[in-house]
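User: Could you check the structure of this?
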Amino acid sequence: MMKIPIADNSPTHRAGLSRLVEKMGYAVIQACDGGEAVDLHERERPHLVLIDLMMPKVSGFDVVDALQRNTDTARIPILVVTAKQITAQDRAARNSNPGKVIHIDEKAGFNNASFIAEVRRALLPN
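Assistant: Sure, the predicted structure tokens are below.
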């Protein structure tokens, strides 16, 4: 079974995303902070990364940067679900690698159907 890690410091948000991902037939591995997320992704080599940007100690921005610098994890698709209001500059910085576009959903306008569609799209073979 395909494992999908979810990194978010909010237990409520992790639980909600976990339910959606599990209903899609995937196993979920939860990380409570960015440091745990980096370790998890390096150890598990998942097919997709679901991450919040606003976490204490090691932010989601730091996790994304660490994953993209590591040749073993650089090709893993990243789906950001965050409470942070994302600016055009944030989007441009996250998508600076032309071979690796990061999809960002804001929690404020979160839509289950579009999230599920984005997860499925991210998991399509290249």
